Each structure stands twice: as C-alpha cells, then as structure tokens.
Amino acid sequence: MQLRLRVGWPVPIRLLMNKSTIILLTFLLGVPRLVGQQAQAALPAGSTPPAATAPAAATVPSQPSDMTVVEEIIARVNNSIISRSDLKRSEDQMAAEAGKADPGIPAENQPQQKDLLRDLIDTQLLSQKAEELGISADTDVVKRLDELRKQMHAESMEDLEKAAQAQGVSFEEFKQNLKNQILTQRVVQQEVGGHISVTQQEIQQFYDQHKTELERPEQVRISEILISTQPATPNASSDELVAQAKAKADAIYAQLVKGAKFDELAQKNSAGPTAAQGGDLEYFKRGTLSKQLEDQVFTLKAGQFTEPVRTNQGWVILKVTEHQSEGVPPLKEVEPRIQEHLYMTKMQPALREYLTKLRENAFIDIKPGYIDTGASPNETKPIYTTASTADDAKKAKKKKKFGVF
Predict the structure, then answer these.
(1) d(CA 115, CA 309)
(2) What tens digit of pLDDT does each residue of 167-225 get?
(3) Is the domain of 13 the same as that of 52?
(4) CA–CA separation, 196 vs 215, rounded Å?
C-alpha cells in the first residue's frame, strides 16, 4: 500500500471536536494548514486603539521582481491575514470531499459552505492562543514524522523528504502544517476539553434510555497478515511461489505463538492493503466472510488468531481483536462509547462559546461581502483614519505587490 503525503488546508473546527483526536492527538495524514501569511503585527491581540492602519497584505515571493501580483485579503485576525486564495482552497477541498460524506454523520455536522471563513478564523485564533499560552509541539512533530516514516517504510527522514518531494509536497510546509494542527488541538484540549466532565449517572441514564439503539448482531473485528502468492514476474513458478509463501506464513505464525505482536508483524510482512495500520480490517457480521474464514474466526475469542489459511490472494493469518455477542451489550462494554458521545454533546457548544470569547478579545476585520458565521456582536472593529489612508497611498507609489480591501 502506498501512503501519500497530503497537504490539506485549514482544519474545520468540527474535526477538532472529536474527543479521541483531542485527547490522543491522533496522527492524520491530511494535515490541516493554518492559512494566511503572517503580516507585520500592527495591533496586539485584544488591543483597541483609537485608529488602525489599513489591513496588511500578502506578497507573492515566488514571482519575478518585475511583476505586480495582487493577493486579495478578505479577513485579518490580529496580526494574521486570510486571503481569497486561502478560502478558494477550502472551497476546493470541500468540493473534493463532498462525494465522501459519511452517511452516519448528521446533516447539521456535515461541512457547510457558509462556514468556511468561520473555520479559517477559528483556526487562526487557536493558533495564536497556542503561542500566547506557550504551548510547544516540536517533540510531537518529530514523533509523528517518525511514525509516518515507518508507515512509508522509509529508512531515514531524508528518504521521507524525498518521497514527499516526489509527490509534489513541500516537506517544510508539511511539517509546519502538522505542528499547527497539534498546537490547535492542544489548546482545545487544555482550554475546553479539560473543563468538561461526564458523570457515571449520565452514562447509566443514557444506557437505560437507548438500549434498543445499542442492540447489535454478532460480529468480529479482525486483522490480517497476508503473504501473497501473486507472481512478481511472468515466468515465476506458481507452485514454487505458493510453497515459499507457505513457509513464510508458517514462520510468522510461529513468531505469533511465541508472543510476537501481530500488528508489528503485519506492518513488516503483510501484502494486504491495511498493513500500515497493523492489518486491521474492521468489523464483519456473520455472512459477510467466506464460509471457510467465517467458520474459523467466529469460534475465536478476542486476542486469538488462526493458522495460515490458503486464499486466492495467498496465505492469510487472521486475528480476532474483538468478538461482540448478539443483543444489547453490557454497560461495561459500551461505556467508553457512551462517555465519548456525551462528551461530544457538551464539547461542541463549549468550544463554540470559547471561540466566541476569543473573537471578542481579538481584533478582526472582514472585507464587505464576506461573512463570519461565528462572529460575536461584541467584537472590536477597526477604525480607519485619513492618516492611515494617506500612508497607504504613499506606500502604493512604490511597487504594488499587496492587495487591500
């Protein structure tokens, strides 16, 4: 399986509302980016001066010096800016993800076009708050990059960087985007998530009221280690390949019996599409696997694994990581899921309230025609003076590489 580095754009706050993401800081390959180039700070966060200079603007350094490039600025958040191209990238990303919408997510939680600018501003505010709180992510960035290096089977960071460049990805930008995501998640965890609690009484009450919805069929969650018997060259002997694959599968099975970790062996040896994830294949109900495999895995308990089994793709070893019985599961089994659900129902309004407060303590200016759906009526608005306009006109006589409102 080939893993691809993907440079995403601003992280919608709805993605930060996942408790496991906030608390465990789960590594995502689609690393969101804090867009908007950093401009020279004219106003500190939370200040309310009697007059403000016109919004800073973005240069395009990649253009030749004799070219004039105008970047339209649509919003300023303290000392950072958001450009029209930033918003356009968010729009493009939303369009690309529209066909991948999860049907299990309520419509109100699906990404909304009208909220894109709000999400960009949210991300800027959280990034700036991380800097104010002195939150660092350098150690975690190194750790995440090393995890990615292992997933892509790269020998060194230099090899990982070359792989990124081969895919048209700026490695430095990728690292910065990863750092920004970790920082914003830590702010949410510390400033919002850390103040939310779910009581045992709330969990029990939810369980009692939703037993019908919790009812489920018997199913197993399995992982695989696949040793392929597909020929690498047209002249390869089929019988020889099968024998070689069987010998390798038997050797891996012997390691498992001695206590080796299944996921590590899957990452190193499996030819399956989920090798990088330790071979995890998610859940299967009865009737969804071939009878040959179903008869084996449904007799296993969680933690047990099969001997090598011959399939059309090769020899496969399957491990049952969960075996769920039919009916309503006991509270102990579903308690973590219920707790997370209740946590999230509290997190969403709490996070939006926190972001509203950040807006009220920030200096935000939005170009007419654009709307921040998360705006607060108590936000500080800039006041432009004749002096600031004259100053801008004087600067404009020089080579113009800036876009202003």
Answers:
(1) 50
(2) 777 888 788 878 888 999 999 999 999 999 999 999 999 999 999 999 999 999 999 99
(3) yes
(4) 28
